[in-house]
TrEMBL record:
<dbReference type="Pfam" id="PF01582">
    <property type="entry name" value="TIR"/>
</dbReference>
<dbReference type="InterPro" id="IPR035897">
    <property type="entry name" value="Toll_tir_struct_dom_sf"/>
</dbReference>
<dbReference type="GO" id="GO:0007165">
    <property type="term" value="P:signal transduction"/>
</dbReference>
<keyword id="KW-0520">NAD</keyword>
<feature type="domain" description="TIR">
    <location>
        <begin position="23"/>
        <end position="156"/>
    </location>
</feature>
<dbReference type="InterPro" id="IPR000157">
    <property type="entry name" value="TIR_dom"/>
</dbReference>
<protein>
    <recommendedName>
        <fullName>TIR domain-containing protein</fullName>
    </recommendedName>
</protein>
Length: 174
Protein backbone atom coordinates (compact mmCIF):
# COMPACT_ATOMS: atom_id res chain seq x y z
CA UNK A 1 0.00 0.00 0.00
CA UNK A 2 1.50 3.34 -0.99
CA UNK A 3 0.77 6.85 0.14
CA UNK A 4 1.74 9.44 -2.42
CA UNK A 5 -1.83 10.56 -2.74
CA UNK A 6 -2.77 13.18 -5.22
CA UNK A 7 -3.26 15.47 -2.20
CA UNK A 8 0.39 15.22 -1.13
CA UNK A 9 1.67 15.56 -4.69
CA UNK A 10 -0.65 18.51 -5.35
CA UNK A 11 0.33 20.22 -2.10
CA UNK A 12 3.99 19.67 -2.89
CA UNK A 13 3.65 20.99 -6.43
CA UNK A 14 1.70 24.02 -5.24
CA UNK A 15 4.14 24.89 -2.47
CA UNK A 16 7.24 24.38 -4.58
CA UNK A 17 5.88 26.48 -7.45
CA UNK A 18 5.08 29.39 -5.12
CA UNK A 19 8.72 29.84 -4.20
CA UNK A 20 10.76 31.61 -6.84
CA UNK A 21 14.05 30.32 -5.57
CA UNK A 22 17.04 29.03 -7.43
CA UNK A 23 17.33 25.93 -5.27
CA UNK A 24 18.54 22.73 -6.88
CA UNK A 25 15.80 20.51 -5.42
CA UNK A 26 12.09 21.24 -5.25
CA UNK A 27 11.59 18.63 -2.51
CA UNK A 28 13.79 16.88 0.04
CA UNK A 29 12.28 13.72 1.55
CA UNK A 30 13.35 12.81 5.10
CA UNK A 31 12.38 9.25 6.04
CA UNK A 32 13.44 6.14 7.97
CA UNK A 33 14.64 3.76 5.28
CA UNK A 34 13.78 0.51 7.01
CA UNK A 35 10.16 1.65 7.48
CA UNK A 36 9.32 3.24 4.15
CA UNK A 37 12.10 3.05 1.53
CA UNK A 38 10.76 0.13 -0.51
CA UNK A 39 7.08 1.02 -0.29
CA UNK A 40 5.65 4.41 0.56
CA UNK A 41 8.70 6.60 -0.02
CA UNK A 42 9.67 4.99 -3.33
CA UNK A 43 6.08 5.41 -4.60
CA UNK A 44 5.93 9.01 -3.39
CA UNK A 45 9.27 9.77 -5.03
CA UNK A 46 8.12 8.22 -8.32
CA UNK A 47 4.86 10.21 -8.27
CA UNK A 48 6.71 13.48 -7.64
CA UNK A 49 9.17 12.74 -10.45
CA UNK A 50 6.32 11.92 -12.84
CA UNK A 51 4.99 15.40 -12.08
CA UNK A 52 8.39 16.95 -12.91
CA UNK A 53 9.11 17.82 -9.30
CA UNK A 54 12.88 17.64 -8.70
CA UNK A 55 13.14 15.46 -5.61
CA UNK A 56 16.14 14.66 -3.43
CA UNK A 57 16.18 11.27 -1.78
CA UNK A 58 19.19 9.76 -0.03
CA UNK A 59 19.90 7.07 -2.60
CA UNK A 60 21.38 9.85 -4.72
CA UNK A 61 24.43 9.83 -2.45
CA UNK A 62 27.43 8.56 -4.35
CA UNK A 63 29.12 5.47 -2.92
CA UNK A 64 32.37 6.22 -1.16
CA UNK A 65 31.58 9.90 -0.64
CA UNK A 66 31.09 11.65 2.67
CA UNK A 67 27.41 11.15 3.48
CA UNK A 68 26.57 13.82 6.06
CA UNK A 69 28.03 16.69 4.04
CA UNK A 70 26.01 15.68 0.98
CA UNK A 71 22.81 15.50 3.05
CA UNK A 72 23.35 18.94 4.58
CA UNK A 73 24.11 20.39 1.16
CA UNK A 74 20.94 18.83 -0.29
CA UNK A 75 18.87 20.14 2.63
CA UNK A 76 20.18 23.67 2.17
CA UNK A 77 19.56 23.42 -1.56
CA UNK A 78 15.89 22.36 -1.25
CA UNK A 79 12.71 24.39 -1.47
CA UNK A 80 10.29 22.13 0.39
CA UNK A 81 10.63 19.28 2.87
CA UNK A 82 8.46 16.21 3.30
CA UNK A 83 9.20 14.59 6.65
CA UNK A 84 7.84 11.04 6.69
CA UNK A 85 7.25 10.16 10.33
CA UNK A 86 7.02 6.40 10.78
CA UNK A 87 7.27 3.89 13.62
CA UNK A 88 11.09 3.92 13.79
CA UNK A 89 11.89 7.46 12.60
CA UNK A 90 13.07 8.58 16.07
CA UNK A 91 15.30 5.53 16.49
CA UNK A 92 17.61 6.94 13.80
CA UNK A 93 20.01 9.65 14.92
CA UNK A 94 20.54 10.37 11.20
CA UNK A 95 16.85 11.16 10.75
CA UNK A 96 16.80 13.30 13.89
CA UNK A 97 19.91 15.22 12.82
CA UNK A 98 18.38 15.75 9.35
CA UNK A 99 15.30 17.11 11.08
CA UNK A 100 17.44 19.64 12.99
CA UNK A 101 19.00 20.83 9.71
CA UNK A 102 15.56 21.04 8.09
CA UNK A 103 14.18 23.02 11.02
CA UNK A 104 17.13 25.43 10.90
CA UNK A 105 16.26 26.18 7.26
CA UNK A 106 12.62 26.70 8.25
CA UNK A 107 13.61 29.06 11.08
CA UNK A 108 15.47 31.17 8.53
CA UNK A 109 12.14 31.69 6.77
CA UNK A 110 13.06 29.62 3.76
CA UNK A 111 11.34 26.39 2.82
CA UNK A 112 8.04 24.83 3.73
CA UNK A 113 7.95 21.70 5.86
CA UNK A 114 5.12 19.19 5.47
CA UNK A 115 4.94 16.32 7.95
CA UNK A 116 3.47 13.03 6.74
CA UNK A 117 2.49 10.51 9.40
CA UNK A 118 2.91 7.10 7.80
CA UNK A 119 1.18 4.31 9.70
CA UNK A 120 1.65 6.14 12.98
CA UNK A 121 -0.71 8.25 15.04
CA UNK A 122 0.38 11.91 14.94
CA UNK A 123 -0.21 12.19 18.70
CA UNK A 124 2.45 9.50 19.28
CA UNK A 125 4.96 11.68 17.46
CA UNK A 126 3.79 14.96 19.03
CA UNK A 127 3.69 13.60 22.59
CA UNK A 128 6.66 11.28 22.01
CA UNK A 129 4.99 8.16 23.33
CA UNK A 130 5.27 4.52 22.23
CA UNK A 131 8.20 3.83 19.91
CA UNK A 132 9.25 7.50 20.07
CA UNK A 133 9.54 7.40 23.86
CA UNK A 134 11.50 4.13 23.61
CA UNK A 135 13.85 5.59 20.99
CA UNK A 136 14.64 8.66 23.09
CA UNK A 137 15.29 6.45 26.13
CA UNK A 138 17.92 4.62 24.05
CA UNK A 139 19.49 7.94 22.99
CA UNK A 140 19.65 9.24 26.59
CA UNK A 141 23.48 9.10 26.78
CA UNK A 142 23.48 12.40 24.87
CA UNK A 143 21.03 14.36 27.01
CA UNK A 144 21.59 17.76 25.37
CA UNK A 145 21.08 16.37 21.88
CA UNK A 146 17.96 14.43 22.98
CA UNK A 147 16.44 17.64 24.32
CA UNK A 148 17.06 19.37 20.98
CA UNK A 149 15.73 16.41 18.97
CA UNK A 150 12.55 16.25 21.07
CA UNK A 151 11.96 19.99 20.75
CA UNK A 152 12.42 20.06 16.96
CA UNK A 153 10.42 16.86 16.49
CA UNK A 154 7.52 18.38 18.41
CA UNK A 155 7.69 21.64 16.42
CA UNK A 156 7.60 19.84 13.07
CA UNK A 157 4.96 17.31 14.16
CA UNK A 158 2.54 20.14 14.98
CA UNK A 159 2.76 21.64 11.49
CA UNK A 160 -0.13 21.03 9.13
CA UNK A 161 0.44 17.83 7.19
CA UNK A 162 -0.99 14.46 6.20
CA UNK A 163 -1.91 11.36 8.18
CA UNK A 164 -1.84 8.16 6.15
CA UNK A 165 -4.48 6.38 8.25
CA UNK A 166 -7.07 8.95 7.16
CA UNK A 167 -6.81 8.02 3.50
CA UNK A 168 -7.00 4.96 1.30
CA UNK A 169 -3.88 5.01 -0.77
CA UNK A 170 -4.30 2.97 -3.86
CA UNK A 171 -4.71 5.98 -6.11
CA UNK A 172 -1.13 7.21 -6.09
CA UNK A 173 -0.15 5.97 -9.52
CA UNK A 174 -1.10 8.65 -12.04
Amino acid sequence: MAFASSSVVAATASASSCITDTKKHDVFISFRGEDTRSNFTSHLHAALCRNNIETYIDYRINKGEEVWGQLVEAIKDSTLFLVIFSENYASSTWCLNELIEIFECKKNGEPHVIPVFYRIDPSQVRKQTGSYKEAFAKHRQNEEKVYLWKDVLCEVAYLSGFHSDLYRFYFIFF
